[in-house]
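Data deposition worksheet. Section B asks for the primary sequence of the deposited chain exactly as it was used as input, without tags or linkers unless they were present during the calculation. Section C holds the resulting structure in token form. Section D is free text for depositor observations; keep each observation to a single sentence. Incomplete worksheets are returned to the depositor.
Section A, Depositor: J.P.
Section B:
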Amino acid sequence: MFTRREFIKETTGTAAGIVFTGCSLMGTSQVRAQTRPSGTRREVVVAGRRARVIDVHAHCTIPEAHTLLGLDPQSSFGPGLDEVGQRRISEMDEQGIDMEVLSINPAWYGAERDVATQVVRLQNEKLAEFCANYPDRFAAFASLALQFPDLAVQQLEESVKKLGLRGAAIGGSVAESEFSDPKFHPVWAKAEELGAVLFIHPQSTPALASRFKGNGWLSNTIGNPLDTTIALEHLIFEGTLDRFPGLKICAAHGGGYLPSYAPRMDHACRVNPAACNPNIVLKKKPTEYLRSLYFDTLVFTPNALRHLIAEVGASQLIIGTDHPYPWNPDAVDHVLDTPGLTDAEKVAILGGNAATLLNIT
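Section C:
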């Protein structure tokens, strides 16, 4: 099994202080790319018409911010930092992706207030600068220092109103505090007020780290989907989504395990009322909240995608590749080749839903 350094050895480089950790495309997308002239852009067509593709799940990093956190950029990003921009765009062109919405996984939730302030400001300004240079190809989610909710409120407002970012990327929890904790209510209130999207990307499930040891990269294979599942369950059962009904939440990795076993939620408090808070009376059945959330399409198989659609509706799905990690380099064809989808549903999932949600014109 390769190390992280080996995995991101083919780093695409830097532009506006941003590093894209790159990798060669794998699988059938590489074969398909070879059938097109080098440097050409794949145009995705549905029912004879060009369909716009927007990927909401794409990663990047900013080395200067990493340094502020006391981390070694080279140990995380590898060589090749002088190459960026065009290679990332070239990979998008091969996959048929018109726009990526960039986000940075939070490594600053444990930082002191001054450091967290510097890191977040740097990242958000660099992201905004980069997107301004490529307005037709990139948008971005802001970073927030959620360990300081009052600060996060200010950062979110500045990012959306002044920097033009589309919302914020957040983890699955902060320092063992669930997002349903009332201390985060001011952040969610501000996000609701701004119409800002919150993109939940998990950070494994730290409390289970010892059980994830061993073969299979279980901290990611199990830990990431589980972390998102727990975060969403708390937001539902603690009444957070009732308190902020206009909150726009998009969950990575198809929402983790939640959509696969959602109906169990509807029976939990009936079976064991002693384990539920009688002071929290939800306005809907727990499963009904899923249809007000958004989910990316990173669920790998046509059957899994069809099941996700059956649970949450095609209107709630958005392309997510996890670029540059090669989980699913055929994300576009994953949608196009899934049986039972109407042309309108394919167009919506490929880019229409994301354009509406993120106000991308």
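Section D:
Residues 39-69+89-358 form a domain with the TIM Barrel fold (CATH 3.20.20.140).
The longest helix spans residues 113-133.
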